[in-house]
Amino acid sequence: MTKSIISNSSVYNDMKVNEILEKINLIDKNNYIQLIDEILLDYQLLKEYEKYSKISIRKQHGIYYTNFKLAYQITKEAMDGFNKEIINSKLLEPCVGLGVFVIAYLEYIDKHCSLNEIEIKDVLSNIYISDIDNLAIKLAKKLISKFIEVKFKIKYKIKNNNTYVGNVIYNDNKVHTVKSLFGENFKFDIVLTNPPYRNLKASSKEFNKEDYKEYQSYCKQVSKLIKKELYLQQGTINLYKVFLELIYTRFSADESVIGVIIPSSLLSDHTSSSLRQYMINNSKIKKIYLLNESSNEFNSITQSMCYFGLKKNDISDNVEIIDVETDSEFKINLKNLRNIDSYSNLIKLTSNATSILNSIHKFPKIKDIDDIHNLRGELDLTLNKKYISEKVTRYPLLQGKHVKEWNIKGDTKYVDNSFFEGKITPKKSFIYSERIICQQISNMSSNKRLKFSKINKNYVLGNSCNFIAVKNNIDLDYILAILNSYLMDWRFKLFSSNNHINNYELNELPINLDNKYINEIIEYSKEIQNGNLNKIIELNKIVFKIYNIEKKHALEILDSYTDEYANLLKESMV
C-alpha cells in the first residue's frame, strides 16, 4: 500500500537491531547454525512488535521465517535435481527475509561442489535477492556476507544491481517480470524461497475503521490486477500462490530447479487446482514433505505446511508424499491420479485405497453422464427471502436442515407463486420433477457425510441443498441407493477438504449404470425409504459387489464408520 500506518517504539527497534548485528558479528564456523536461527527468531519477534493498524507487520505481510536446518533440506531437495553448470547459474530468493535460503544454498555448494576462489566469486555474483522489507534486506546482506567470510574466507557483499527492495509482485499497475525487478531480461536457474502466506482480503477484526476501508479497496485493486495477468489464480488471492505462479511462469528458466515451503492447502484445495495441475503436469517432483499444524519447525503458525523441490519442464510418473511426523510414505502414480480425480488432489493414499479407487473409477463419473444433472438449490435464501412464506402454496420449501438420510424432517415453509413469474430458468425447470437432495454443508467430523433423500415434484430447494435430477432411462431410486452407500461416502470423504458438499466434488463420484443387480438395488432403495432400514446392510453388500470391491477392502472402508448399520454390515461380512 502507499500509506504507512506503522506504529512502534524506535528505541525497542534500535535495541533489537543492535542485538541482531552483535550476533552476526559473533558468527563463526562452529556456531553459525545456532546463531542464524536465533537471529531469524529475533527478527520475527521484531516484526511481531511493529503494528499495522490492529495487526503486526509480520501478519500483515504474511512473514514466517524458516530455520536453517529446514531451509537446507529444501535446498537439497531442489539442488539434487540440478544438472547445469553451477558457476554460471543464477539464483533468486524473491522473499529473502534475512537470507537463510541464500546461506543454505552456499552451504550446499560448500558441501557438494569443489570450487576455487574465482569460481566461488562467480557463484556469488549470480545471487539475486528481493524483499518488501528494506531493513530485512540490509540485515540479510550483512548476514550473508558474514557467512561467506566464515565459510569461504572471502569478503563479499551482494551487489545493489542484484537487489530489489519493494513490492515484489507488482509496481505501477503491472505484475513484475525479472526485467522490471533487476533491469535485465533473463531467467533464473535456481529459485529458493519461503513466500508469505496471506489471503488478500480485508478483515474488520484486523483494522481500524478507516484503515479497513483503505485496505479493502487495495485488496480489490490488486486482486483484479493479479487475475488479469496471472491465469492460474482462483478464488481469493493468497500471496504464496501468486509467488508460485510468478516463480514458475516469469522468473525461472527452462529446466530450472525450484525449492519452496508453502501451506499444504496447495495440495488439495479446490482454488489451487489450476496451479497444482499446471505444476505437476510440467515438473518433476519426486517428494513432497508434510508438516502438520503442531510442527515445531515454525513459530506462530497454526496451519499445516509442505515443502518440496522440483525441476521445471520435466515430468514425474510418481510422487512420494511423506508425513514427517509419522515418517510414513505414500506413493502416488500421477497418471492414475488424473483418472481418479479431475483436480489432481495430492492426498495421502495407501496402496489399499489406491486399489479401491482404481476399481471404482473404471465407471463413469457423474460429470461425464449426460442424463444426470448435479446442481445447487434454486432459491437463494438471502437474495430471494421475499418469496419465502408461511402461507401454504403448492410449492413447499426445503432447506439443508430438513434433509436426513433417506427422508425429510422438520417444519415446512412455502414459496410464493411470484417466484415463478417471468422466464423459467433451466434450474427452476427441475422443480417439476422428482429429485434426490442432500445438504450443502456437512461437518467433516460426521460419521457419514453424504445423506441423500428423494423428494416429489413441486418442492423448491434452498441453496443450502444440492440436488440430483435424471433423464431418460436412469432410475432415481437406483442413484439414491448408490450415493447413500458407504462406498460413495468413503470416496467423497477421502478427497473432501472442508465442511461443504460441493457440486464439483459430487461430480467426481463414479456411477455403475450397467450391472445385473440394478433392479434388486432399486427394490432395496424403495424398501429403505419406506422404513425397512435393515435393508441398508444388503444394499451395501451389493454396492461393494458391483464395484468389484474385495472383502478385505470393504471391511477397511467400514472400519471408518461407527453407526449401527455399519457395525452390523461388518459382522455379516466377517
TrEMBL record:
Q: Which InterPro entries match?
A: DNA_methylase_N6_adenine_CS, MethylTrfase_TaqI-like_dom, N4_N6_ade-DNA_methylase, SAM-dependent_MTases_sf, TaqI_C
Q: Which SUPFAM superfamilies match?
A: S-adenosyl-L-methionine-dependent methyltransferases
The protein's enzyme class: transferase
| Record's protein name | site-specific DNA-methyltransferase (adenine-specific)
What is the superkingdom listed in this entry's lineage? Answer: Bacteria
- Keyword terms, alphabetized: DNA-binding, Methyltransferase, Restriction system, S-adenosyl-L-methionine, Transferase
For this protein's source organism, the top of the classification is: Bacteria, Pseudomonadati, Campylobacterota, Epsilonproteobacteria, Campylobacterales
Q: Which Gene3D superfamilies match?
A: Vaccinia Virus protein VP39
The species is Malaciobacter halophilus
In terms of PROSITE patterns, this protein maps to:
N6_MTASE
Positions of the TaqI-like C-terminal specificity domain: 396-511
Q: Biological process (GO) annotations?
A: DNA restriction-modification system; methylation
Q: Where is the Type II methyltransferase M.TaqI-like domain?
A: 126-293
Instruction: Recall the GO molecular function terms of this protein's record.
Output: DNA binding; site-specific DNA-methyltransferase (adenine-specific) activity
- Catalyzed reaction equations: a 2'-deoxyadenosine in DNA + S-adenosyl-L-methionine = an N(6)-methyl-2'-deoxyadenosine in DNA + S-adenosyl-L-homocysteine + H(+)
Query: Which Pfam families does the entry mention?
Result: Eco57I (PF07669), TaqI_C (PF12950)
Q: What is its EC number?
A: 2.1.1.72
